[in-house]
Structures are given as structure tokens and as C-alpha cells.
């Protein structure tokens, strides 16, 4: 197949050549299907809120002047919006971090100690696995539950893995590789019956799937702001249930109790050493307002429609293998695939160069899932959809996969 070459927005010396009509402001590729990595298209109110905060906000908790107080009010309102969204019930139990990775490191290193046993799954991202492996070296024992051929957790092995020393189950809400959703009500109910904690990584679901910490019996919820929550990068947090104390990962300035030698233990200060990302949190505040006005259910419905359209368009193409369980739309809007024996990076590069389509190839920081699917060497090409994608973009993606498969 003969492919046209286009001028690159970055200049004549750039090796990446995208069709001019698919390039947006700042050189962003217009057909963006990498939303599981970060949502590139944000509501205008988010961008405006960050700019306004940079012009007007001081340092929250570091003064009694209006610039500081305005930042403090906004940050507290953001805690309220998060608490409401996830049904936590207490804004003061929301601690801000820079992303899910910091949240999960804080919780995993601050909740478990030598002699504890923790259960996790092969669906996990390295932001869960690597902190757990670190704790394994410190004397925490670990059980990793397998999945079936579609990447669905083997739930029947969960209860039989519980020991007297089991402290918690740590799991994702949805796989960042396949989009498969975990049944948190089932897992949470089992945890509650056995008196163990449930720690959830909501990186792929916060803002796009309903999360009710009380109904799902979630004790600790870790989230990032830059994906489904539509906020800026560098934002995230931890929602901590009643009666749970997490040892801080960091110690330092807090704006209160200056003369204590130890970091303050009251939430949320206990988990928030140093200056918060007030400018980013301002953007997250606006994003949460957009999500509330639009409705999580409506956002999910839209993303599921786009995902289903793409899945049905590519799943029957000869030579294309799609991974995951698509029996229900109650999942993250992700479709991961491979074309024949082509390396996933080669396919993703071709999609970018020829069609102006952004996807993510490779391992996606999910090593155990690739081991389960036997795709360690090939990787997968991940298409992940957003509320702001269109049917026309999806159809272009389907056509691109079909044309590439015909060449295989």
C-alpha cells in the first residue's frame, strides 16, 4: 500500500510526519485515542481555572491574607466535591497527592508492615505491583490472583487465599490494558466479612464509572486527576475511610504545629507534607464541577458507545485479535488489540504516521497481564476513548486497522 508523506508540524527536520489536517493547536494530533494514559482534551473551564489560579492564588495554609485564603477555600471545596463523588462522607479524609502512583506508594508503604499478608491480582499496574514488591522485601507476604483467558479475575480463588495474617486486598477497579472492570461490591463484601481492608486503584475509572465507597466497602481509594477526572497532570489523591491510619510517606512543612518534631497526624495534613499543587487542584475543582453537571452516567454512556462502535468494527477483521471481556459495557472504554504478528510499536507508529491516530503500544506497565496473554514480546496496541472523541474519529480508526490488517 502506497502511503503519502506529510509535512510535520515540528519542522522539516522532524522524522514524524502527520497529515496537516489532523494536527491541532500546539501540534497535538487530532485523533487522540490515548485517554487511558491521560485525557488530552480538557473542558475549557479546567484550563481557565488553572490560569486564574496562577494569576491570583497564594499558598494555602501559609497566611491569613486573601490570596492564601482563596486558595484554601478552593482546595477545601475540591475535597468536598471528591468526597461527594466517591461517597466518602468526610472531606477531611481526602488527601491530595501528585498522582495515583504517589497515592498507592503512600498507602501501601504506610498501611502494611512485616508479617502482614496482602492479596492482589495480575490485572494490576506497576504503580500497585512495584510498591508491593518493595514491601515483600520488607517482610510482607504477597498472593497474586490469576485471570482467565479474557483477562477476568478468578474470583473463586480470592476467599481461599485469605489467611489469618491477611491485612488487605489491593486491586484496580479496571484494567488499564483490557478495560475489564472488577466487581468491587463482591470483593468488598468478602473483605468486610473477613475483617480485612480493601484498597482500590481507581486510575481508570474515577469520573467515568460510579464509585460508592460505602456500598462497595472500599476502605482506601487512590485516584489520579489527569485521566477520567479531566483535570491537570500532577493532581491526585487518597480517600481514607473512617478508623484507618496510614503512616505518612513524607514529612515536612504543613502550615500548622510548626514546633512539633513529628509531622502532624490529623487528616488530611498527615498525608500532605509541603506545598500542595494549588494551581492543579484549581483545575481539578473545575473538572469535578463539569463532571457533576454532565453526570458520570452520561460520560460513561458516551464513552461506552464509542468503545462498542470501535470494538464491533475491528473484532471481526481477519488477522486482528482483541483482548478482554466485552460481554458488558460496564468497563473502561479501552480496546487493546494486535494485528497478526506485527510488533505493537510498529502498528502504533503506522497509525500515527499514516492516519494521524494516537494510540499506545507496548507493555502499558501491566507486566502480569502480558504474561497471562502471552504478549510479552509483541505487546498490545491500546485504543482508549474519551467523552470528547467522535464517531467520525472512531470510524477512521476502524478503517485504519482494517487497511493495516489487509497488508499483514
Can you put this structure into words, describing what you see?
It contains 10 helices and 12 strands. The chain has helices at residues 44-56, 66-86, 100-111, 126-137, 184-194, 278-294, 296-314, 344-355, 367-373, 391-407; strands at 31-32, 94-97, 117-121, 141-145, 166-172, 197-201, 220-224, 236-240, 320-323, 334-339, 357-358, 381-384. It has a 7-stranded mixed β-sheet, with helices on both faces. Strand 3 (117-121), helix 4 (126-137) and strand 4 form a beta-alpha-beta unit. Helix 2 (66-86) packs across helix 6 and helix 8 packs across helix 10 (391-407). The longest helix is centred in the N-terminal third of the chain and has 21 residues, at 66-86. It is globular. The protein starts with 30 loop residues before the first strand and ends with a helix. Mean pLDDT is 92; it is low at 1-28.
Give the key terms.
seven-stranded mixed β-sheet, globular, alpha/beta, 408 residues, 10 helices
Write a brief structural summary.
The chain has 408 residues and is an alpha/beta fold.
Topology, pairings included?
Layout: E1 31-32, H1 44-56, H2 66-86, E2 94-97, H3 100-111, E3 117-121, H4 126-137, E4 141-145, E5 166-172, H5 184-194, E6 197-201, E7 220-224, E8 236-240, H6 278-294, H7 296-314, E9 320-323, E10 334-339, H8 344-355, E11 357-358, H9 367-373, E12 381-384, H10 391-407
Parallel strand pairs: 1-11, 3-4, 3-5, 5-6, 6-7
Antiparallel strand pairs: 2-8, 7-8, 9-10, 10-12
Look at the structure and give the mean pLDDT.
Answer: 92
Number of strands: 12
**Number of distinct helices:** 10
Distance between the termini: 11 Å
In helices, the fraction of residues equals 25-40%
Regions with pLDDT < 50 over 5+ consecutive residues?
Answer: 1-28
The largest sheet is: 7 strands, mixed
- Taking all Cα atoms into account, the compactness measure Rg is 22 Å
Multimeric status of the protein: single chain
**Strand-residue fraction?**
5-15%
The secondary structure category is alpha/beta
* Spatial order of the strands forming the largest sheet: 2-8-7-6-5-3-4
Amino acid at each position: 500500500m502506497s502511503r503519502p508523506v506529510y509535512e510535520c508540524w515540528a519542522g522539516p527536520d522532524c522524522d514524524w510526519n502527520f497529515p496537516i489536517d489532523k494536527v491541532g493547536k500546539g501540534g497535538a494530533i487530532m485523533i487522540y485515542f490515548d485517554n487511558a494514559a491521560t485525557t488530552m482534551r480538557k473542558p475549557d473551564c479546567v484550563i481557565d481555572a488553572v490560569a486564574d489560579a496562577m494569576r491570583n492564588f497564594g499558598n494555602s495554609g501559609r497566611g491569613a491574607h486573601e490570596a492564601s485564603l482563596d486558595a484554601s477555600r478552593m482546595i477545601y471545596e475540591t475535597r468536598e466535591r471528591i468526597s461527594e463523588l466517591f461517597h466518602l462522607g468526610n472531606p477531611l479524609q481526602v488527601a491530595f497527592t501528585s498522582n495515583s502512583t504517589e497515592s498507592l506508594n503512600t498507602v501501601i508503604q504506610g498501611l502494611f508492615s512485616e508479617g502482614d499478608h496482602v492479596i492482589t491480582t495480575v490485572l494490576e499496574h506497576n504503580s500497585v505491583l512495584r510498591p508491593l514488591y518493595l514491601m515483600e522485601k520488607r517482610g510482607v507476604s504477597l498472593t497474586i490472583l490469576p485471570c482467565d483467558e479474557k483477562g477476568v479475575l478468578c474470583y473463586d480463588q480470592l476467599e481461599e487465599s485469605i489467611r489469618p495474617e491477611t491485612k488487605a486486598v489491593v486491586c484496580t477497579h479496571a484494567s488499564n490494558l483490557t478495560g475489564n472492570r472488577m466487581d468491587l461490591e463482591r470483593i468488598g463484601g468478602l473483605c468486610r466479612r473477613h475483617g480485612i481492608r480493601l484498597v482500590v486503584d481507581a486510575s481508570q475509572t474515577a469520573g467515568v464509572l460510579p464509585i460508592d465507597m460505602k456500598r462497595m466497602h472500599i476502605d482506601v481509594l487512590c485516584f489520579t486527576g489527569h485521566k477520567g477526572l479531566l483535570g491537570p497532570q500532577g493532581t491526585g489523591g487518597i480517600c481514607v475511610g473512617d478508623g484507618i491510619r496510614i503512616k505518612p510517606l513524607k514529612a515536612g512543612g504543613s502550615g500548622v504545629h510548626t514546633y512539633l518534631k513529628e509531622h502532624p497526624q490529623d487528616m488530611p495534613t498527615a498525608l500532605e507534607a509541603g506545598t500542595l499543587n494549588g494551581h492543579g487542584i484549581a483545575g481539578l475543582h473545575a473538572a469535578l464541577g463539569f463532571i457533576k453537571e454532565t453526570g458520570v452516567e452520561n460520560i460513561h454512556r458516551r464513552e461506552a458507545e464509542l468503545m462498542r462502535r470501535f470494538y464491533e468494527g475491528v473484532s471481526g477483521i481477519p488477522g486482528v485479535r482483541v483482548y478482554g471481556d466485552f460481554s458488558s459495557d460496564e468497563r473502561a472504554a479501552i480496546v487493546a488489540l494486535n494485528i497478526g504478528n506485527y510488533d505493537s510499536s510498529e502498528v502504533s507508529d503506522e497509525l500515527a504516521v499514516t492516519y494521524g491516530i494516537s494510540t499506545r503500544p507496548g507493555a502499558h506497565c501491566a507486566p502480569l497481564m502480558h504474561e497471562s496473554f502471552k504478549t510479552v514480546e509483541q505487546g498490545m496496541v491500546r485504543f482508549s476513548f474519551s467523552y470528547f472523541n467522535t464517531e467520525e474519529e472512531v470510524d477512521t480508526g476502524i478503517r485504519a486497522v482494517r487497511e493495516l490488517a489487509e497488508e499483514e
